[in-house]
Design goal:
The complex is a heterodimer of chains A (271) and B (328). Chain A is mainly alpha-helical. Chain A is built from 11 helices and no strands. The two termini of chain B are 37 Å apart. The chains are: A mainly alpha (271), B alpha/beta (328). Chains A and B meet through helix 1, helix 5 and helix 11 of A and helix 2, strand 6 and helix 3 of B.
Chain lengths: 271, 328
Amino acid sequence: MKQLGSLLLAEIIKEHRHSFHSKMIYFSLLVWPVINFVTAYYSFAPFRMGADSPLARFISYEQLPLFLLTGYLGYIFYWCLVQSSWQMSFERQAGTMEMIFISPVNRFAFLYGRSLSSLIEGVWLFFCFALLALFFVDGIQLSGWWAPPLAFLILLVSAIVWGGFLCVLFLFSRDASFLYTVLDEPMLIFSGVRLPPMAFPVWAKVISFCFPLTYALQLIRELLMEGASLQAMLPSMGLLAAVLLVLVTATVVLLRQAEKHMKKTGNMVMY
Amino acid sequence: MLIAENVRKVYRVKEKKGWFRQQWTEVEAVADLSFRMVPGKIIGLLGINGAGKTTTIKMCSTLLTPTSGTITVDGYDAVKDDRFVKAKVNMIAGGERMLYWRLTGRENLQYFGSLYGLQGQALRDRIDSLLLQVGLYEAANTPVERYSKGMKQRLQIARGLINDPHYLFLDEPTLGLDAPIARQLRKHVSELASQHGKAILLTSHYIHEVEELCDEVYIIDKGRLVAHDTPEHLTKSLHLDTALQVVIPSLSDSLDYDLRQLALDYGGSREIAETDEQTWEVTLRGKTDMTTPLLSLLAAHQSPVLRLSTQQPSLEDVILHMADRRGA
């Protein structure tokens, strides 16, 4: 456990120095999602949002800021990890990936450690903004003090599992960067960041349920917007747990395959 | 001891045949290679480009799986028990990759040390000792991007030693370094084997480096072992020509004729070139030492000797000779 802590600390320092070396990066990490959030909110303004609007069946106008805030908070958690996984190609180019895989380090500790450190670096500023904003928006319903910390924990755990899974995909090939295009924008559109997935047509609902963020956001909103009790959330929690279990299993299997593939083809150094 | 037995590595290579067609071909990078690494000894792996040197190193360091054959490290199989093997080996490659440039030297070592389970005071002590060893203690807190090429290479050595490996693979470690820095590194590598008991496998394009450092040399060509011996034995066993070079102020026709005759008598050859200083440089190549008859001949012709030197065959000559022979 101590070793894992040491590895995590080293990974955090590495990520911090390597990817977050300038204060301007933190500035952009706050400004970019805030702009997105504000843009999304005002995009709804020209449209009819009254009780008879099509969206009113899923969210009330009063809860729209909170809906978007939770959506963007969840999205930033997951987006950071898509970015971080994409950075695996840097490790390949720099030859540091070989140095990681020549060592006996626990591969899962490396993958999840990498995800955790990217996440902490990438979200803390927007997380603080979101936390502050929660005091000023209407529609918060909590069934207990534990709801916000639990929401944070759900986002953290699910995002790390997602990040580990993505890192493995990027281990397979230097050409995996197409996943960035495939995963980034569709995740924003279909995961319920700006619109509830239930408002989607069937084909879009099918896509939305391919993203674990959809399940995580569902839970976060139940916790923060509906004031759901733990018991009421059990089905959603079970669903997210099942999705995460599938992701972890896929990560374990794919990691073994990826390492085997790299050792067979020597593609660890190809970039 | 590291024992590689009948190791073979075949890559499948994709060749594009137009827009939609592709063809897979098999390329044998290493074929039936066997060798041993013993603590305290440095072995050299030589060959021309594409000989399979880097592939061999990567198989020994668990980065590649051999297609067939076995590699065992202190009894552990490099494929099945790779976690045990990884703790005992490390690799240092030439060039400026394999480091995080935005991190300082110390942070790089902290990161790579943590991959080997090192932590706390033990890791800090190890880092300090390595930084002192490679002469980077003063620059420990400087980002690597501000290091010179030589400093980066020294940091690579520190990184390669972070887990105190028993077996160290050096792939062109002095590539592109200035002569004084390369000499310093060679000294360090030599000490790693002689004083710290590391088993070292070295590949290098600088043959004199291999001659200077290695106890044994394996010469491979297209993945196959073509010779294995000490550097001295290799040069002797091939009975390559010794070159005897003499510089004289003038060359008469009769002396020219006698020199050619001398070379023929000893089964060798003669080359003559006029130098910029208006003198003549005569080179006699042969398997037998022709110094005494040459000096007698020059005395008989009353020709003064401005310079005389003998050039023994080098390991480079051995490689070139083998490459020529196999290419023929």
